[in-house]
Specification:
By secondary structure, this protein is α/β, with parallel strands linked by helices. The protein is built from 13 helices and seven strands. The protein has helices spanning 27-36, 53-63, 88-103, 114-118, 158-165, 184-197, 216-227, 249-255, 258-270, 293-308, 315-331, 334-349, 364-369; strands at residues 10-11, 41-44, 67-74, 80-85, 125-130, 172-177, 201-205. The protein has a seven-stranded mixed sheet. Helix 1 (27-36) runs parallel beside helix 2 (53-63), helix 10 (293-308) packs antiparallel against helix 11 and helix 10 packs across helix 12. The longest helix is centred in the C-terminal third of the chain and has 17 residues, at 315-331.
């Protein structure tokens, strides 16, 4: 009898070097490798960030390869939430959650909790919950004084996590992430049994940190820098092996259930959003009510001209101002000028020195705006 053909694979959990001191590969390298391996799609899911998406998008567009926009968040007890964007509304919601989490902590960190996630409106995202490796959330798998493995027990918190997680939206999944660890088989049974109990699909994910296995040495060094330790003292802060790379189909089929691989491809197919859909919209806050950006900039420029030339504005100056205002309007740059004007006005009010640079030094409108 003919064997069942191998399903296509899409990697749904992958961090780049924009996950600072975690990822060991650039977004472009990850996209190149995924395309070469024949993946149907790749999700870049940097931690509470979309910093790597522009470079990944540009490279994927060159190759005609499908890129999924996403992000991951570290939760309590070693759990991670992976959010994948399905449409433009989901992208907006995810960006707002990232901003909120970043603003809740000091620079370089983030703070997130269940309430923030519940209120984020992520119903349009495909959400994947990645549990910690079998038993590690509730029991250490090694003794503090010995390297002898200790058999772990399942995390009793998982049912509570899944009960909460299921309420976040219609597209919720449980991640199965395997890296030839000592308890892979137990971990698989634990995840699949929990998913069956809550009627959820299990998706194969790689928790990818590098595009090729040979980046393992660099990834170890990054980990040591992050934890302020040496390779000799890092211990179990380092990954147990170099399996967190983009693996080929043969390696994936050898370790993951067929259905989990198929589910990953199915989830990827639902994520149809592209960064090409985005058009930047400046905040309305820089424009007063009863004004458009164009009318407000014109008013400020003409008032500024009277301030600069209290004895009257020469015709050639008026012509230059009108020429620049027409050019600014044609380029739709009014909001940019108003934003800079707002920053400069605040700086001056606080006695902070500031000055124009480059072409601003030759602009009559900039001169009128101060």
């Amino acid at each position: 009898m003919p064997s069942t053909p191998a399903p296509d694979y899409a990697e749904l959990h992958c961090v780049s070097n924009f996950s600072f001191l975690r990822g060991a590969s650039r977004p472009e390298e990850l996209v190149d490798a995924a395309a070469t391996l024949g993946y149907t799609a790749l999700a870049i899911t940097d931690e509470c960030s979309m910093a790597g998406m522009v470079r990944a998008h540009a490279r994927a567009k060159e190759l005609g390869f499908k890129l999924i926009v996403g992000s991951e968040f570290a939760l309590d007890d070693g759990y991670r939430l992976i959010a994948l964007v399905r449409d433009a509304d989901a992208y907006t919601a995810l960006c707002q959650l990232i901003s909120q989490a970043r603003r809740a902590a000091d620079k370089g960190n983030y703070d997130i909790n269940r309430t923030m996630i519940e209120r984020a409106g992520l119903e349009g995202c495909c959400l994947i919950l990645a549990p910690p490796y079998y038993g590690t959330a509730s029991a250490a798998i090694t003794s503090a004084n010995t390297e002898t493995p200790i058999a772990p027990r399942p995390d009793k918190a998982l049912p509570a996590w899944l009960s909460w997680f299921k309420q976040l939206g219609p597209y919720t999944y449980l991640a199965l992430e395997l890296h030839y660890g000592l308890y892979d088989q137990k971990h698989s049974h634990w995840v699949i049994d929990a998913a069956d109990q809550f009627n959820m699909a299990v998706v194969a994910c790689g928790d990818v940190h590098m595009h090729r296995r040979k980046r393992r040495a660099l990834q170890d060094v990054l980990t040591c820098i992050r934890h302020n330790c040496t390779l000799e003292t890092a211990g179990r802060r380092l990954f147990a092996n170099g399996e967190r790379y983009l693996r080929d189909s043969q390696a994936l089929q050898a370790i993951y259930p067929w259905q989990a691989i198929q589910n990953a491809a199915d989830v990827a197919a639902m994520c149809t959003f592209s960064m090409d859909e985005l058009n930047y919209q400046y905040p309305r806050e820089v424009v007063p009510e009863h004004h458009t950006a164009q009318s407000y900039l014109r008013e400020l420029a003409l008032d500024g001209a009277k301030w600069r030339w209290p004895n009257g504005v020469k015709q050639e100056v008026s012509d230059q101002i009108e020429y620049e205002l027409d050019l600014i309007s044609h380029m739709q740059y009014e909001s940019y000028f108003l934003t800079v004007y707002d920053i400069v006005k605040f700086a001056r009010s606080q006695l902070i020195l500031c000055q124009g640079r480059g072409s601003a030094a030759n602009s009559a409108v900039c001169y009128c705006l101060g």
